C-alpha cells in the first residue's frame, strides 16, 4: 500500500464515521448526548471536519485536485446545482408519501 492508497482508505473510514453520526442524529436527535459528552450534532461536525482534513491531506500528497481552485461564484453555482438536485429528489419522495410536502432545501 502506498501513501495515496492509505489516505484513500482513511477517507473511506472517515466517510463511514460521518454516515454513522448521521444515523445517530436521525435515531436519537441532534441534541442527544451520550454519557454527558458532546451532542450528536457536535460529534457529527467533528467527523465532517476529520473527513475534510483527510481529503485535504490526500490532495496535498497526490496529483488529484479534490478541491479545485475557483472563485466564490463557482462555489455558489455548485451549491445551487446541488440544492436543485436535492429538491428534485425531495419532490419525488413527497409524491411517494415518504416525506412531508412542505420540505424544501
Your description of this structure?
With 105 residues, the protein is an all-alpha fold. It has three helices and no strands.
Can you give me a brief rundown of this structure?
By secondary structure, the chain is mainly α. The chain folds into two domains: 3-68; 70-105. The protein is 68% helix and 0% strand.
Q: Keyphrases for this structure?
A:
0% strand; mainly alpha; globular; 105 residues; single chain
- By DSSP (H or I, 4+ residues per run), the number of helices equals 3
Unreliable runs: none
The number of distinct β-strands equals 0
**N-C termini distance:** 41 Å
Q: Beta-strand level of the residues, as a percent range?
A: under 5%
Class from secondary-structure proportions: mainly alpha
Oligomer: single chain
Largest sheet: none
The helix content is: 55-70%
Query: What do the pLDDT scores average to?
Result: 91
What is the secondary structure topology, with strand pairs?
Elements: H1 3-28, H2 40-60, H3 72-95
Amino acid at each position: 500500500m502506498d501513501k495515496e492508497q492509505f489516505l484513500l482508505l482513511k477517507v473511506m473510514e472517515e466517510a463511514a464515521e460521518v454516515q454513522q453520526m448521521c444515523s445517530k442524529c436521525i435515531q436519537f436527535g441532534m441534541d442527544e448526548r451520550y454519557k454527558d459528552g458532546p451532542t450528536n450534532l457536535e460529534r457529527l461536525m467533528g467527523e465532517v471536519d476529520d473527513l475534510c482534513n483527510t481529503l485535504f491531506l490526500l490532495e496535498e500528497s497526490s496529483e488529484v485536485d479534490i478541491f479545485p481552485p475557483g472563485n466564490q461564484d463557482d462555489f455558489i453555482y455548485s451549491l445551487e446545482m446541488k440544492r436543485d438536485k436535492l429538491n428534485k429528489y425531495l419532490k419525488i419522495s413527497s409524491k411517494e408519501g415518504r416525506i412531508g410536502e412542505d420540505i424544501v432545501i
